[in-house]
Design a protein that fits this description.
The chain has 407 residues and is an alpha/beta fold. The chain is 36% helix and 28% strand. The strands form 4 sheets. The protein has an 8-stranded mixed beta sheet with strand order 8-7-16-17-18-15-19-22. The protein is globular.
């Protein structure tokens, strides 16, 4: 919600140069960048610290993003604990096709679940760098964003009182349903959306990974994915109708479909185990343009969503955070507004690049199960070209890894 003045029953206002709404990867990375430069900021989060540190989310981080975190002193635990992946495997038409992308590019992926990264970032921000953060806040409102004196108000969970924070900038990092996205829903933003018309049943299984790499299964029954998470837990995906009820997917039904869709000649059966998470994700993308509205700067899912088809969401959030954090520091410490002026354009170039790759990859994943013989045929043609043409393989590897980024 946006209004022109804070609630009148508030206590004496506070002041921070920057207020960050949302304690996800984007918000916490921005906060850490600011604190490293001795810029004061306040992070507001509606959930508890325990909740954000345990909420399961994506786990694929591209090498450029890890190097960006490392240069900012934010990757020590990640580099010590994350899995390093150099290959993936496609399974279709009953066969297995290994794709060694590190051999082609010299780069790799890191597998590190988002909740672990959030845990690292919030510890560094709050416990090491002394950053101010308020958990469990309620009724966050934004005020006077189109002026030089914006503010943010919220209800304190301990006292029930309204608090007002004056600032120079607001970083909106609270996702698609957050207050910062709602603040630009008055027609000022142009929102582009694409709905794939499919769902993915997202699963976590208490089962050791059945392969040392990510598996993609293209099958007439639907797409299936296998993503190692730890020595004991594996993430799986099953294509399903959008809005499907996860409770209709019994233990036996899930494993029967996974075994069938990921089965291939010479491949051992999957390791089965107890399902500890089942939820249906409707596959869709959106982009908000521009990403700046007065003194409000959107980042991460508040500005764009890329379906997990291409595992790009957390990487885009970090890309935004690096650009915005550095730009705010430059402005507040040197008076250099170049980064802030170019923030939206710089972010959206990569956003649209990843959106296009997600769209292309969706056809590869879902063409075989579309029920359309033409789409199924073109899907097989793309896959054959991927494994028959070094040029096609290199182009795919570069997009899959996001190799044209350097932060």
């Amino acid at each position: 919600m946006t209004s022109t003045s804070p609630h009148t029953n508030s206590v004496a206002p506070q002041r921070f140069p920057v207020v960050i709404v949302g304690a996800g990867p984007a918000g916490l990375t921005i906060g850490n960048i600011l604190r490293a430069a001795s810029v004061d900021c306040l992070v507001l989060e509606t959930e508890t610290r325990q909740f954000i540190e345990q909420r399961p989310r994506a786990g694929v981080i591209e090498e450029w993003a890890v190097r960006g975190l490392e240069r900012r002193g934010l990757a020590d635990t990640l580099l010590a604990r994350a899995q390093r992946h150099t290959e993936c495997e496609f399974r279709f038409a009953g066969e297995r096709y290994r794709f060694a992308y590190t051999e082609l590019t010299g780069q790799h992926h890191w597998i590190y679940p988002q909740q672990l990264l959030v845990t690292d970032l919030v510890r560094e921000y709050a416990d090491v760098r002394g950053g101010a953060i308020r958990f469990g806040v309620q009724d966050v409102e934004l005020h006077d964003l189109d002026t030089d004196h914006p503010s943010v108000s919220y209800t304190c969970p301990e006292t029930g009182r309204r608090e007002v924070v004056h600032c120079d900038f607001v970083a909106g990092c609270d996702g698609a349903r957050g207050v910062t996205r709602a603040a630009v829903s008055d027609g000022r933003a142009h929102i582009s959306r694409s709905d794939y018309g499919i769902g993915w049943l997202a699963l976590l299984a208490e089962a050791p990974p059945s392969s040392d790499c990510v598996l993609f299964g293209m099958h007439p029954n639907g797409f299936a994915g296998h993503m190692p998470r730890s020595a004991e837990v594996t993430r799986y995906y099953l294509e399903c109708p959008p809005g499907d009820d996860p409770e209709t997917w019994s233990h036996d039904r899930v494993w029967t479909e996974l075994q069938q869709r990921l089965g291939a000649n010479g491949a051992p059966p999957l390791n089965e185990g107890r399902l500890i998470e089942k939820r249906v994700l409707d596959m869709h993308n959106y982009v908000v343009e521009p990403m700046v509205f007065g003194r409000l700067f959107l980042a991460g899912d508040a500005a764009h969503l890329t379906a997990p088809i291409a595992a790009k969401g957390m990487n885009l959030a970090l890309h935004d955070a690096f650009l915005l954090g550095d730009a705010i520091v430059a402005y507040l410490t040197k008076g250099d507004g170049t980064g802030l002026d170019g923030y939206s354009v710089a972010c959206l170039g990569r956003v649209w690049d990843y959106q296009e790759f997600s769209h292309w990859l969706s056809e590869v994943y879902h063409g075989a199960s579309s029920g359309d013989p033409y789409r199924a045929g073109t899907t097989l043609a793309r896959l054959r070209r991927l494994f028959g043409s070094p040029t096609a393989a290199m182009a795919f590897a570069e997009q899959y890894l996001g190799t044209n980024a350097d932060y």
